[in-house]
Design goal:
With 283 residues, the chain is mainly α. It has one domain: Arp2/3 complex 21 kDa subunit ARPC3 (Orthogonal Bundle), CATH 1.10.1760. Helix content is 66%, strand content 2%. A two-stranded antiparallel sheet has the order 1-2.
């Protein structure tokens, strides 16, 4: 079994140092917006459950809009944006096939494969645009949508940062990442609504006076009781699709990446050095 590590090909959406700083800031804001219950002191205004949802939705929407605009407007050419439109349509088209029944969701494997082939910037933007387009198609627009977009964007971003292994090891890596990312997505989404969903004095409800450690324990049992089956179904479905469809789709996407020659942008950024920028000439 041949296991090789290759040079990273030219990404469809290159990220400058400034954009990476913005992505890092967005990651910190994502942790805060998803896990805000752990940072609140008893008696805080946000614990009243009246102002918190709208504030968090606004923050998440702003983060998604700023980072998406920065990534797509920096070094992206028409080919990259056209490809983004095509892959967003693919994500929107495959999502209804799973319909989220028992967590059997089909939306994550094209995001992971695209992030893997076209780079972390493309994966992040596709997670946002793909979830937005699919929500319009399936009628899933609601206050949860900005959280879904940001979480899916982080899944695509992580896929683009994986080691550049090829062969059977690459498939194993993607399957393992898909399973972990599926659970992480479920945990993040649960955290975004947990304080409002589990009320009362039960052992799985949010308690502002319990502190970070106590609330983590409460959240763990809330997740086991309400979402573990969905997270497991999502992980199994995503892993199975990556295992079966991953190898042929990786070849198709890489062939599209080579023909697009993203490393040779028509604007002059690297136009004379696009081949040296990393566009591979073989599978």
């Amino acid at each position: 079994m041949s296991q090789t590590r290759t040079a990273r090909p030219a990404p469809a959406m290159a990220l400058s140092a400034r954009t990476w700083v913005m992505v890092a800031i967005a990651a910190v804001l994502a942790v805060i917006t998803f896990c805000w219950p752990l940072f609140l002191a008893p008696g805080s205004a946000l614990t009243t459950n009246d102002f918190a949802p709208m504030l968090l939705i606004g923050v998440v929407g702003l983060v998604v809009a700023v980072i998406t605009a920065q990534v797509t407007g920096e070094h992206s050419d028409v080919k990259a944006l056209a490809l983004l439109g095509v892959m967003s349509a693919v994500v929107a088209g495959v999502r209804p096939l799973g319909a989220g029944t028992a967590g059997l969701e089909t939306v994550f494997f094209p995001i992971i494969l695209s992030g893997r082939v076209f780079g972390p910037g493309f994966g992040f933007v596709l997670g946002n645009t793909g979830l937005f387009a699919s929500a319009l198609l399936t009628g899933g627009v609601g206050p949860w949508l900005p959280f879904q977009m940001l979480a899916a964007g982080l899944v695509g971003l992580g896929a683009g940062l994986l080691p550049q292994w090829r062969g059977a090891l690459e498939v194993v890596l993607l399957v393992a990442y898909g399973a972990v990312a599926s659970f992480a997505y479920g945990w993040l989404m649960d955290f975004s609504f947990w304080p409002f969903a589990a009320g009362g004095d039960s052992q799985i409800s949010y308690d502002p006076s319990a502190g970070p450690g106590g609330n983590l324990v409460r959240f763990f049992w809330f997740n086991v009781a309400t979402s573990m089956g969905w997270n497991l179904g999502r992980a199994v479905m995503t892993g199975a699709l990556l295992l079966v469809l991953g190898p042929p789709l990786l070849r198709v996407l890489r062939r599209a990446s080579r023909r697009a020659s993203f490393g040779r942008a028509s604007s002059g950024l690297g136009s004379s050095t696009g081949r040296a920028a990393g566009a591979p000439t073989a599978e």
